[in-house]
Fold each of these.
Amino acid sequence: MNDRLDPSLALPDLAAIRAAHERIRPHVHRTAVITCAALDAEVGARLWFKCENFQRIGAFKARGASNAVFSLDDDVARRGVVTHSSGNHGAAIAYAARRRGIPAWVVMPEGSARVKQENVRRFGATIRHSGMDAASRAAACAEVERDTGATMIHPFDNASVIAGQGTAAVELCESVPDLDAIVAPVGGGGLLSGTSIAAKGLRRDLLVWGAEPANAGDAAQSFRTGKVEPLPAGVTLTIADGLRTPLAPRTLGAIRAHVDALETCGEDAIVRAMRMTWERAKIVVEASAAVPLACLLEGRYPAAGKRIGVILSGGNVDLERLPWQ
Amino acid sequence: MNDRLDPSLALPDLAAIRAAHERIRPHVHRTAVITCAALDAEVGARLWFKCENFQRIGAFKARGASNAVFSLDDDVARRGVVTHSSGNHGAAIAYAARRRGIPAWVVMPEGSARVKQENVRRFGATIRHSGMDAASRAAACAEVERDTGATMIHPFDNASVIAGQGTAAVELCESVPDLDAIVAPVGGGGLLSGTSIAAKGLRRDLLVWGAEPANAGDAAQSFRTGKVEPLPAGVTLTIADGLRTPLAPRTLGAIRAHVDALETCGEDAIVRAMRMTWERAKIVVEASAAVPLACLLEGRYPAAGKRIGVILSGGNVDLERLPWQ
């Protein structure tokens, strides 16, 4: 770990990501890397997709959650873990807690997607419902911590979680050693932080690009201004529901240090990229996972002719309601 | 080739399938084999899915069509190829003909799925529409043959096509050498014929099971009676639109010789298996490709605890109209 004076800014280094990789190996899949000639032709570059939609619980979040849960000392772990999550991180904590045999509580906003609630319950975690706002979520988590002694594992503002998320990029670089760039989506920034630390740690000249919905374009703005910007006022309307989250100072620090470009795309482009991934590559990805391809299709990066790794973050979709219908 | 006296019954042997494999290697993908712990748990067996939904044109049909097209002598090939197909075989012939630089005509019934028509046009083939009945299709093909000198390549009643389809099973057995059984869907029987010849040629004790929709249960009946039975009278109502085809004497011969069980499943089971593959394995498969899993989920084979290869035949789906909606 890179021990800064302020622990709220501490970040993992490549060694911590490698240690995380060893720690979580029994608990997560080494996911497939696939290619698709039709998508290469659409983008005008060669793409390698790291299929975290095939990951345990259907998203990369299994990596960070497993690393955080298995990093706890036994006497702390025994009292359980708590988190808040609109979905995939909650399922990931539930999954990792069951693997370790400890209790888990997940605070979720009312009205979360059915499939994401089922993903949490499947692993025996207890769901606590809260309001949509950050204060309501934090209060519900604090209540669980107070009542049970459980350890809070934040979805992204946590160095162990970030280290775990970085392991996908390590595997991608092992599978395809000569990439020019890696693209990852950004919500709270855990995945992009871990990806960028891993990528630059492995090869200084490997480009790292972030991709965000314009309708939740706070990270792109924070990247420019250098301070954590809030989400646009009012309800944030993006189909990429995993990315409706502002950065933390910790993740902004990693992203400012290691990311080469952070670009945004519109909702139509996200739906188009999601549908194209289903139709051409024949895999199920959620809207948040399609944001990097959307930015590539929109020409947001200097991608032409390059060899590009794309992290497909997850595949948890409510099949009753598809965005193009 | 196994040269019988009656050429309409000729079948490839394992050597012909291996030769096909070499011939088509530059033109088709060696598709991924994936596993899914959640589906293993549902079936109570270990499953390896051969992902022909990732194949060129989105279906295994690229194998047989490529083998047939690239087996033609130059002076014959030059005049082009013609076939009839409700979809995937047509796209496969169009694809293979473009790879060889020769013209192709595809006779399709009016009202074929949009995505399947686009798949044919994408490769520059000419579509000729016909009625739904076999006589109308055959007449349209004969007209093209007469007018152009093109060679007819039947979707399954063709030894070169069957040899090509068998290459998927060869790859599956290379990837997972210790399978107990392989399951493939059956419509006209080209895939199941090739699969069973390859499997038994590689290992006499490897079980081969066929899977068919009960609503188009002619192959299961033919398997019992030993003669080619017609489709049930009237319109055949199955969502598995790739499997609405009777066997030919040729494919029945292979299936009777090499297949250990041929079972059927209901429409609800097909929809459930298709949806489960999307939700759990996160891959897009068409209804016909879900028929083997449907039969496994329904307990139609002695599968418990076995190691089973499942050929996922294709992934061409109209995403506007999903069967569970």
Amino acid sequence: MSSNAFGERFRIVTFGESHGPAIGAVIDGVRPGVRFDLAEVQREMNRRRPGRSDVTSPREEEDRVEVLSGVFEGKTLGTPICLLVRNRDADPSAYEALRDVVRPGHADFAWLAKYGIRDHRGGGRSSGRETAGRVAAGALAKSMLAERGIRVVGFTREAGGVRAERVDYDEIERNPMRSPDAAVAERMREAVLAAQADGDSVGGIVEVHALGVPAGLGDPVFEKLDATLAQALVSIGGVKGVEFGDGFALARMRGSQSNDAIGPGGPVTNRAGGTLGGISSGAPIVVRCVVKPTSSIAKPQRTVTTSGEPTTVSVEGRHDPCLCPRIVPVAEAMAALAIEDALEAQEALRSS
Amino acid sequence: MSSNAFGERFRIVTFGESHGPAIGAVIDGVRPGVRFDLAEVQREMNRRRPGRSDVTSPREEEDRVEVLSGVFEGKTLGTPICLLVRNRDADPSAYEALRDVVRPGHADFAWLAKYGIRDHRGGGRSSGRETAGRVAAGALAKSMLAERGIRVVGFTREAGGVRAERVDYDEIERNPMRSPDAAVAERMREAVLAAQADGDSVGGIVEVHALGVPAGLGDPVFEKLDATLAQALVSIGGVKGVEFGDGFALARMRGSQSNDAIGPGGPVTNRAGGTLGGISSGAPIVVRCVVKPTSSIAKPQRTVTTSGEPTTVSVEGRHDPCLCPRIVPVAEAMAALAIEDALEAQEALRSS
Amino acid sequence: MSSNAFGERFRIVTFGESHGPAIGAVIDGVRPGVRFDLAEVQREMNRRRPGRSDVTSPREEEDRVEVLSGVFEGKTLGTPICLLVRNRDADPSAYEALRDVVRPGHADFAWLAKYGIRDHRGGGRSSGRETAGRVAAGALAKSMLAERGIRVVGFTREAGGVRAERVDYDEIERNPMRSPDAAVAERMREAVLAAQADGDSVGGIVEVHALGVPAGLGDPVFEKLDATLAQALVSIGGVKGVEFGDGFALARMRGSQSNDAIGPGGPVTNRAGGTLGGISSGAPIVVRCVVKPTSSIAKPQRTVTTSGEPTTVSVEGRHDPCLCPRIVPVAEAMAALAIEDALEAQEALRSS
Amino acid sequence: MSSNAFGERFRIVTFGESHGPAIGAVIDGVRPGVRFDLAEVQREMNRRRPGRSDVTSPREEEDRVEVLSGVFEGKTLGTPICLLVRNRDADPSAYEALRDVVRPGHADFAWLAKYGIRDHRGGGRSSGRETAGRVAAGALAKSMLAERGIRVVGFTREAGGVRAERVDYDEIERNPMRSPDAAVAERMREAVLAAQADGDSVGGIVEVHALGVPAGLGDPVFEKLDATLAQALVSIGGVKGVEFGDGFALARMRGSQSNDAIGPGGPVTNRAGGTLGGISSGAPIVVRCVVKPTSSIAKPQRTVTTSGEPTTVSVEGRHDPCLCPRIVPVAEAMAALAIEDALEAQEALRSS
């Protein structure tokens, strides 16, 4: 019954429903004396925020973060940090029509089987809006990692069948798809808008790199760094798979190809995606997530009512026709939380 | 510093090094009064045990499980169950040559960066032998799930480039590759043996199905059932990615294709692989893991010594040329542990 | 680094500094569909609230609780419940004089040794104001226990050397000392006011009874019900010891006196205070906490500055001359949280 | 359902029934490279071991500890350490007469209410023999603390109404009562033997000091160092209360007496028993536990059978007439585990 916490040392608990009063996060386990810059947190929130381009939902949320505790005179106190975001553009009446309908692809059916009760307004806690708390907390993790020279950067590797072939980190925030390849960014956008025009949506792949991660992070059995990252990333709504380094392509290789030779500084190639035996090797962490097409589509779909009667539903309203661009900052946040947590563990192990 | 536990309610801690005195698991959180059949546990151990065919390591381990606590007159007491397996065919001298060598593809390099100390004998705790504790504990989970009508079954979907096209559960244990498709089992085996003859190894894909899982398992945010399964499976050495349902193929679909229509009993198709919003939907759980080629190969590889000098290594000794057949029972065990844990949580949530 | 959570199943995280923007709690692990009555929560907050009599601090706090998540149409959703209380009568300037002084009896000295940084305003998170979050969360626990027929009631057994000899639950809320014995309530109050007039403070004993607790709660080793209650109660600032049933008097008994005879319904006497082997026996839980005299006193005391210079301090300001009356609702809250958590565990163990 | 673990960083899980095959502990979270001296562990086990004087049970157990994992060439690996003790002098037949009887003062009645099943032989897991696992794990904690100059020492402050007035640590192990006061040790022993001759038992008080604990350990809200110690100590069977520093005597003091003045090095007196605001102050930790009279007595007592029929029981067999001497090493072990865990947390917080 405790599904809303992540991390062991840099530990967050998130709360909030999509159309309730507020969403937020409590971070318990931040060291004392860490510089806390609210502007950095707000910048990450703005990256996740809807209503910023024609490929994202037009819901208008200011997503202004308020710090309720744990920070004093610009520094962390070592006590829990509560970050709060009020829901502003909550429009529950828009959801009245969906009160008794089970939307395909959404949590609705399974949620009712689980809880027997729900806040139907925008999916309640199963809404993607839940990720605002993750991004707020992840922003602090990113900032703390940056002070150790660790950078976490995500982008849309593929969307609507269009794939980025080259990766230029500087390009990512210049286009609404967060493509790292300027040459395909516009084609990605068009693929998304074309699907939307058909009352449909598209899937894609989000990739995250973590650069500068020192060797030694992650625990060798159940909390391998890649295992924790896998949980972190698959826990994002819409992510249906994850792969590290060469990932699924490894199935068709031989050991003599897939093993990275080792030099004095560690692996000299990076087919493994940054870990050895689940522990970081010093090479960049490379992980890809498959993102399913947005479940909310205007096209009519076969479904049932909450009482089990067959019906048809067209999910109108404010939705992202492709989740990738907005999942990018969420995936970065989750990766940062997992890595910061592993870093804290390793510093503890080596302290004394 | 606590990487050796898995699960919140049906919680295991495993221990043991490959060539130390013993390996095992303590299960804390088993209900009282559950039938405990040691023969069932032993049967699962035997499935994981090496030395059973020409596609697995010839290490001779009896892997006999001893129950040290928590069971009385054939039933669980509700107290911790300690399951112990002595290491018999430990041959540390065989590893003396590797004391100062960092094996490519293995944990060695990262492990030293983490701990600064290691048991070099067969990888110590980073050895695949560590999974014996998982299988012992998972056997009880499987047995408890079976009593609720839930079956967890794994198989080799692909190995050495040979793919099983049809799935016949009855076929799996009839061939050493654990292929569910009799038509390709022998070709899989030949691909593995051919690589081995070259001093090499192959990768593959292991797939796990969980049948009869009721709707409602999994928690909606960080502990989505698929997120927990992702951690569980990626925590197995050699697994470098995981996908649910249609997985990475979803990247190229539209929402109107990928959404499973809903009928009164739940999803009528199963592209989602058994979850909605991370909560089980009542459809079968379908998950695939990519397994990298075995890291230990006879072919010479470039690497360094533990003091950083360049060298070359040929890893002779007793190794599996393809990990898939032996990962099958481990993947089943991990899936069973994750599902049993989620089932306990859901029964708790709905009790009163 | 994670000190702000309590409970395993009915799990709370509290946050907030005494003179920061707000304090509160997130409760993760409340079942879905539980009636949530904000008025009941507010009533408990009012019991803890300062400024209500001449034996408590005159700080003026409305302590109005706002529910930010987890409740919908009067019922719990099964998602985290965030309860927020804004700090209103924060008067940080009053604390400017104490910025560089280490107050005797308070956390100041140890806090600086721990964190190297602090919010000096009213003790920051080490203030008794931190307990507001506990009481808010505990109010829900009390309400859920009440629905199972379990009542948690606390009172001042002794204060300023005056001891309540009889216990009438109905009397407790009728006098400002929360004495259960009308005959001594006024004498207790006078003892407190006399100390205050001397620029001093007094200690006392708070006792908590839990009635209607079914047999079987608590786990038999480290989480014995009394062990958990001991942690819960000693975690309240000012509590320096705890005893169950006949407590320290048992040191001078013989087994033939101290053992409670057992009848078909359980113990027929209650020297053990409601547990056997750490598991509830069905008899009332009886626990007493010793409360030290309030550390903040007007009398000058020898101490040091934060830079280690000897000095003298008189702690003026708004303080309780005796902590007992305000600790009563906090002790009830902590006992309720511990018992509700154990009840959830037991219902889970027996579900299926 | 997870009651068998203690600690967050230096975390132990214990297992085993009194007359099952073995008892033991797994320690997860020990740093790599720590010297591990089995002889030290065995020495602590011998202190707890029965059959060593006329005031302890004559059960003959060698209690030889076997290290199954986590130690290599005399040092810890950073992996879990499994410590195992076989039960030798298990005489289950002696308990056949008690199979259907509920012993007063023991867990029996509550245990059956909880689990509905039990290992009746010597109380199964509710036996004091369970503490062998604690002592084995605690021995490593004590040894690690000793390397930081921290010493944990326990003794019998009072037994059978005889109180030690002076404390000479060197005296403790010289007498079977573990009295720190040579002048009263023999009178204590006589009081115990006199009770035993009457078919009865006595209670007492065990005190633990921790010397050299640096300021800064413990977390300020729910995991105050004294709160954690309270849980640790009350979790020992037979302990019915705990007090720190002046403890219950503080109820009758005024603040001007009870506050310890502060000097540059911390508190100059120690009425608080070593903590301020729940965080260690640098002064010695001083804690006392009340120990109830042994529940097993030869005198006939009124009770019921497991099916609820009234009966009378005389608990013959091998019992300690006073638990204090054998609780001393257990209390030291629990205190050491709690302090080592807090020390690890603090070193982590201050690392970087």
